[in-house]
Amino acid sequence: RGLGCSARRAREDSWLKSLFVRKVDPRKDAHSNLLAKRETSSLYKLQFHNVKPEYLEAYNKLCQEVLPKIHEEKHYPCALVGTWNTWYGEQDQAVHLWRYEGGYPALNEVMSKLRQNKEFTEFRKERGNMLLSRKNQLLLEFSFWNEPVPRDGPNIYELRSYQLRPGTMIEWGNYWARAIRFRQDSNEAVGGFFSQIGQLYMVHHLWAYKDLQTREDIRNAAWHKPGWDELVYYTVPLIQEMESRIMIPLKISPLQ
Fold first, then answer.
1. Do the domain assignments include residue 201?
2. Cα separation, 180 vs 189, whole angstroms
3. Across the strands, what pairs with 185?
4. Residue 151 has what DSSP assignment?
5. Considering the domain boundaries, does residue 1 fall inside one?
6. Which of these, 29, 45, 5, lies nearest to 198 by C-alpha position?
7. How far apart are CA 134 and CA 138, in angstroms?
8. Would you call the peptide bond into 148 cis, given omega within 30 degrees of 0 as the criterion?
9. Domain that holds residue 135
10. In whole angstroms, what is the distance from residue 203 CA to residue 139 CA?
11. How does pLDDT run across 191-230, given as a tens digit for each residue?
12. Which residues cross the membrane (predicted)?
């Protein structure tokens, strides 16, 4: 019993010390400058649309007709990264992820052009009649995560969303810069993002799996790798809330 108590106290002391250890440059700077990719200036928009159940099929059809036109339009500096329906999680929900090459100026340019696009104006009006609610967030991508690029399917996607405690984003980044190395073997890591506008201190990790059993096998295998359990142990206290969505891509999604 004595040895067990000593080991537990040592682990708790180690955890407490970790909260006060900052491994990045402690200079005064926004965490977006410390954690985001420096070689790119891409901005991401994540949209959540809660659709009236009776309209989900019509909503998907409408999106599949209109969204590719925006994605393929050369004069719009944006790209559709992925579009899905939630399978497990919040039901009758659509999730869209967009990338704006060039940051906020690109976002402003796209929004300005779309306001003058008659077809898009009609699309928004028709889409609005099908929705119960909607929200979005503007995101940056973590420097240590994969760039989300098109991939062949079929796959299911998991969007794991974490509401962090204010002030802990740097610590999260420090730990996950190491943790991501444990989750690369099966090419399941798609992208990692943190919010800039919308709900703040939000982190989103996007994963791809062949099916639910493959997801279970890959996640269980991580626990057999030395160091993974320690990183999980340290990151859990940084989280206020967390949510997992299992999503199915639409036919037009570059991520299949």
1. yes
2. 8
3. none
4. B
5. no
6. 45
7. 14
8. no
9. 42-249
10. 9
11. 999 999 999 999 999 999 999 999 999 999 999 999 999 9
12. none
Give the relative orientation of helices 118-128 and 56-72 as an angle to the nearest 10 degrees.
Answer: 160
Residue 104, in any domain of the structure: yes
Q: Are 59 and 92 in contact (CB under 8 A)?
A: no
Q: What is the number of residues in the chain?
A: 256
225: domain CATH number is: 3.30.70.100
Between the CA atoms of 100, 200, 97 and 241, what dihedral angle is there, to the nearest 10 degrees? Answer: 160
DSSP assignments along 49-109, one per residue: EEE-GGGHHHHHHHHHHHHHHHHH-TTS-EEEEEEEEEEESSSSEEEEEEEETTSHHHHHH
For tokens 């420090």, name the residue: 174
**CA atoms of 95 and 48, how far apart (whole Å):** 5
Quote the number of domains for the chain. Answer: 1
Identity (one letter) of the amino acid at 24?
Answer: V
79 within some domain: yes
Q: How far is the C-alpha of 248 from the C-alpha of 27, rounded, in Å?
A: 42
Note whether 161 and 216 are within 8 A (CB). Answer: no
pLDDT digits (tens, 9 = 90+) for 55-72: 999 999 999 999 999 999
List, in sequence order, every residue forming a beta bridge with 47; answer none if it has no partner.
96, 136
Instruction: Give the bridge partners for 50, in sequence order.
Output: 93, 133
CA-based angle 179:225:168, to the nearest 5? 25
